[in-house]
Specification:
- There is one protein chain.
- The protein has 343 residues and is mainly β.
- The protein has one domain: Neuraminidase (6 Propeller), CATH 2.120.10.30.
- Helices cover 5% and strands 40% of the residues.
- It contains two helices and 26 strands.
- The chain has helices spanning 265-271, 275-283; strands at residues 6-11, 14-18, 27-32, 38-45, 48-55, 68-69, 82-87, 93-97, 102-106, 112-116, 129-134, 140-144, 149-153, 159-163, 176-181, 187-191, 196-200, 206-210, 223-228, 234-238, 243-247, 253-257, 299-300, 305-310, 315-320, 322-326.
- A hairpin with a 5-residue loop joins strand 19 and strand 20 (234-238).
């Protein structure tokens, strides 16, 4: 899809919530099945890690046979501290594990296929791999977080190359975390320790640096996940500010998402059978329950639905982008002194 000349941003309303406690505990990331009707919710906490298989339309009630992929441990197909999950066009599933320093691959049925990665500082080795994404060649690009670099591999795990060094100067990194690769093969990386995100060409040439420490507009307190939609808009999970920030393709701040959650369908059914929980909810601060708490990731699908794994509230909040593409006659060239008047 070619990017439009401009956008009329009509809104970004909250759509719905997926999951609940006991089903999607501590969701760190989310990916989508080949059929686009199923979500893979990566859940991680101390001593418990799994991929919850959950319908994108949610469920009416909790099943006794909850479906999952993987479990906590060190054996093939298990995790200790998984960070991100992605899928390829064939429906295969890939998960990074910063504790085990490896990438694990499953087929579309959730069966273990392979793993690769060793701990170290040499070319192709890992020290805490976090973000993962595919480029146009089908190669996987991995954020090697504690080695402060980006590395590229074939789909089978053969090292291709990489870039990056430790520091705070433009182009350097301090505990990089999330990654996204757009249709031009530009690489977007959240720089956790430097409270910013950076954009690189596929060869590692720096193209943009956005953000600084703080809680204001366009500032960050430990950015984690990052996503870019088909319009070029950029979304960053600003973890310790409990929000997701949105920027345009040039890195100009647009808006923030702080949470608007309602009870999911499965949570409503569950609550109808719990009189004590309903009483406690009535006496609590219900307004606080809608807000995001420590989001670790952000994803957007081909329908411009924004998915925010709400890590400390055990759910996924979903928003729907509302827009109208504009052509050259409807969107002016950049202005020297821009102002907006509404009449």
């Amino acid at each position: 899809m070619a990017r439009p000349h401009g956008l009329l941003r009509a809104g970004y309303p909250y759509l719905r919530t997926l999951g609940m406690r006991r089903i999607t505990n501590f969701p760190a990331d989310i990916a989508f099945s080949k059929t686009k009707d199923v979500a893979y919710v990566l859940c991680r906490s101390e001593g418990a890690s799994l991929i919850r298989i959950w319908p994108l339309e949610d469920m009416e009630q909790q099943s006794d046979d909850l479906k999952q992929i993987g479990s906590y441990g060190t054996d093939d197909g298990q995790f200790q501290w998984p960070v991100q999950i992605i899928t390829n066009d064939a429906g295969d599933i890939f998960v990074s594990d910063e504790a085990l320093n490896r990438i694990t691959k499953y087929n579309s049925d959730g069966e273990f296929v392979s793993k690769w990665g060793t701990e170290g500082t040499g070319d192709g080795q890992f020290n805490g791999p976090t973000g993962i994404a595919f480029n146009s060649d089908g190669n996987m690009v991995v954020v090697d977080s504690k080695n402060h670099r980006i590395q590229e591999y074939t789909a089978d795990g053969e090292y291709v190359g990489g870039f990056g060094s430790h520091g705070s100067e433009p182009g350097q990194m301090d505990i990089p975390w999330g990654i996204h690769i757009d249709e031009f093969d530009d690489i977007y990386v959240t720089d956790w320790g430097n409270n910013r995100f950076q954009v690189f060409s596929r060869n590692g040439d720096l193209k943009n640096v956005v953000g600084s420490s703080g809680s204001g507009e366009g500032e960050f307190n430990r950015p984690t996940g990052i996503a870019v939609d088909d319009h070029g808009d950029i979304y960053v999970a600003d973890c310790f500010n409990d929000r997701v920030e949105m920027f345009n393709a040039e890195g100009h701040y647009i808006s923030s998402f702080r949470g608007d959650a309602s009870l999911s369908r499965v949570a409503r059914t569950y609550m109808l059978t719990n009189a004590i929980s309903n009483r406690l909810r009535e006496t609590g601060r219900i307004e606080q329950e809608k807000y995001l708490r420590r989001p670790r990731s952000v994803r957007i699908d081909s329908e411009f639905r924004l998915f925010i794994p709400d890590y400390e509230t055990y759910r996924v909040q979903i928003y729907q982008k509302d827009f109208i593409p504009l052509d050259e006659t409807q969107f002016a060239a950049p202005l020297r002194n821009p102002t907006l008047e509404v009449t």
